[in-house]
Write the structure tokens for this entry.
Amino acid sequence: MKRKIVTSLVFLFLLLSCVHSIAQQGVVPMTFSGGHAAMLADMAQNLKLTLPVLSDETCAKLRAIYPSFWNPSNPVDAWGTGWDPQRFEQTLEIVAADPGAAVIAMTIMPQPARRISIEVAEVIRRVADRSDKPFALISDSSGGPREPGVAAALEGTGIAYLSGLRNGLTAIARWLQACPPSPEPAAPSQALLDQCRAFAERCAELDEPERFEFLSSIGVPMSPSQAVSSAADAARTAERLGAPVVLKGSAPDVLHKSEYGLVALGLKSAAEVSAAYEALSAKLKRASHSRRAQVVMQPQAKPGIEIIVGVRNHPGFGSLLVVGLGGTFVELLMETSVRLGPVDERTARAMLDEIRAGAMLRGFRGSGPFDIDAAASAIAAVSRFGAATIDRLAALEINPLIVHSAGQGAVGVDALFEQAPVGAAKNQAS
């Protein structure tokens, strides 16, 4: 089957990430402008895109059809002495045959190249039909309307028509990063599917301790969580669990507890627990109007590396898995690794290694190593849950999942669920 980049910029890297595996992830940007070529080289470096050196054979074939002053390099400036559709078609074929070229991305300017843009698209379509490489056409006009003639020429081909040089290269970079290094894992078992779907159907009616218990039962380790109904009840529960403990205010209409001051950490004595309960109860009444608002208690988790693990489901499309450094780092660093789920533990470890979490988990400046196997197992379990509930839950976010020292496991201490829009399950079924 020929590998082609799909036309949607938003879902470009998502749709193909679980379908294709590119052995060599080199990109050859092509352009009609020397200035564009320089810009593309800089952008590719910033995006960590590999621009392979063209082979001697490729260079020799290109020199044979271009003027003597022209020097073949990557990115390729294919303008030469002007627009020549036959030479352009030959250029595309020669570049596509290069062993280091995994993706060919042609850029075009709306002006003065608008007059030839449809011809360019038609040539790309013909060459792509004869090649097993993915092609893309990128307009340097970001945010503007796509040219109808170009869109029509590429319709139904699976060739991407993207807007904006940086946006287009970013989409390609993320798609290449999302290509799995190993075969897809087996789909969730029927038993797991049934469990997860049943849970999703009643998730909105469950409290936090019940949700945590279910996640733990399917391989996502969560901290034991128990609702407490009074200061005295909280003190008794803390004595049974053992200090230190954490109290949290939980409610369906409160998504982020810390924003409302609804988390009290490191409580060690009965007096501290009782006082924290009273304070949290008052804050919870101000923050939530839900009848199911409650104060819950957990054992204080041991320190470790905090990561975020989440899924975002798109019925009829796929379950997107996101992994990054958690806690406050997720908003500070804006650094994540992305796959279409489900994934196995091997791919989960690869995702961690794509971000700084991997280096931190393996040990840094006397800290660690940490239990990367437990982290990978939890990530894979979350991905299976996401795939099993794609038509019933819109999202799940565990932040943070605290990864302890090597051999000591990992534990999630907070989880946010988002219900699927009404009718999603029905639409998926139909």
Notes: Residues 1-24, 424-430 have pLDDT under 50 and may be disordered. The radius of gyration is 26 Å. Residues 305-429 form a domain with the D-amino Acid Aminotransferase; Chain A, domain 1 fold (CATH 3.30.470.20). Residues 270-287 form the longest helix (18 residues).
